[in-house]
Amino acid sequence: MGVELELAPDVLVPREETELLGRRAVSLLEGGPSDVAIIDMCCGSGNLALGIASEIPSASVWGADLTDSTVALARRNVDRLGLGSRVSIRQGDLFAALEGDALQGRVDMVVCNPPYISTGRLEGDRAHLLDNEPREAFDGGPYGISIHQRLIRDALAFLKPGGWLLFEFGEGQERQAAALLSRAKAYAPVTFATDRDGKPRVAIVQKIDGPAETGTAEQSR
Prior knowledge:
alpha/beta, 6 helices, 21% strand
C-alpha cells in the first residue's frame, strides 16, 4: 500500500493477504463521509492503520495491540510517517485497550488481522513460524478462531449501525467465519474477498440495525 514500515524480530511481519484487507477497507471508505473513525484491532506494526490513514486523509484511526514491544513499534511507525495527529496506538486486551477513548457507537469501520492458526498446528506443521516471530501473532486457540469469536462479539458495541467489520482468516476458515457472524444475529450477510489463487481470506460485513436477515455468503475478488 505504499507505506514503508520498521519491523522488529518480536512483531509479526505483514503478509500479502493483509494488503488485500487494507485495500478493500480503503475502497469502502473512498467517496464516503468525511471524518470517519476506524479501529485497527491487533494492529501489529501498524501496517493496516497506517496504510488506511495514508489513503483516507479524513480518517482518524485507533490501533490496539497487547504486548509492549508491538505497541512501541507501531508508535515508532506512526511517528516516522508523520501521522501522529490522526493515528493513535493503544495497549490492552482487544477492545479493552480503547476504554478511555469514548468510541462506543461511533466507529465507521473495524479492521483486524487476528491470530488464526490453531495451537496444535503451531506445535506441528506450522512450528517454523515461531522461529522468528512471536506466538501471540499466530496462536488462535484450539481451533484457530478464539480471537475471531471475541472480535465479532465485541466490535458491535463500537460500530455504528451500517459500520463495517473486515477481518482476515486462515485458508479454509471461511465457513467458521460465516457461522460466527450468523450466530451474532447483528450483521448483514458476509462477503468474502479472495486472494490471487481464488481462496477466501477476508470477511467483509456490515452491522445492521435490527434483526439480521438470512442470506448466503458471497465471494469477490
